[in-house]
Amino acid sequence: MSKVVLVTGGSRGIGRQVAIQLAKEGYRLLINYNKSQKEAQETCRFLREEGYQVEIFKADVSKQDQVKAMFDFCMDRFGSIDVLVNNSGISYEGLITDMDEEDWDRIIDTNLKSVFLCSKEALKHMISNHSGKIINISSMWGQVGASCEVAYSASKAGMIGFTKALAKEVGPSGINVNAIAPGVIMTDMMKDFDQSDIDYLKGETPLMRLGQPEDIANLVSFLVSDKADFITGQVLASNGGFVI
């Protein structure tokens, strides 16, 4: 029986490409979404038409009861959870002096608390199976910080610390935990950037191009494969050399 993957925030951008890539590689797939129902349904329909086993589930992954319901659904439909890709994330740009507590909590809850809640539920099954892989999609700004993105940078840095600590904790149970720190990736998060901004970012990238969701999906594909069985607690960068 093929392995089961749950991708949070899997209806758009990086998450969608990760879902498509892993489905094509034979994984059974549960795509989580919260607000992007139309996109989730379209992705699900596309993959099912190609013959892949895919389900979708609406859940706010910052809410414990909704996360539990999602994992219960996964176990009911597929009978296991072998891989968790914590991809859900939102951004905020602006001075910290202009940021209110509500915005801060929303960023931390969506980007970091969700990783705790989903990983905790997944581990209930992975530990008993003595196997499993958790991939956390962080950011290069979690490594070096970004001006006017303090909350986002803090949440992504928290994911990196979470990854390293959890890898040590569950390694004896045969579970791998790794993080990916993408650079500038052409997704919906770039919609407010004009061409001059994009050209500037390309110029700051040694490979002279910006990333595509496929770049991250390929790295996820490697980390969840048997080829990465001896890799854990690591932060793998895919940023074109923007951060070295």
UniProtKB/TrEMBL annotation:
Keywords: Lipid metabolism, NADP, Oxidoreductase, Steroid metabolism. The keyword Lipid metabolism applies. GO terms for biological process: monocarboxylic acid metabolic process; steroid metabolic process. The keyword ATP-binding does not apply. GO terms for molecular function: oxidoreductase activity. It holds the Pfam family adh_short_C2. InterPro entries: NAD(P)-bd_dom_sf, Sc_DH/Rdtase_CS, SDR, SDR_fam. Belongs to the short-chain dehydrogenases/reductases (SDR) family. NCBIfam families: EF_P_mod_YmfI, PRK07231.1, PRK12826.1-2. This is Oxidoreductase, short chain dehydrogenase/reductase family protein.
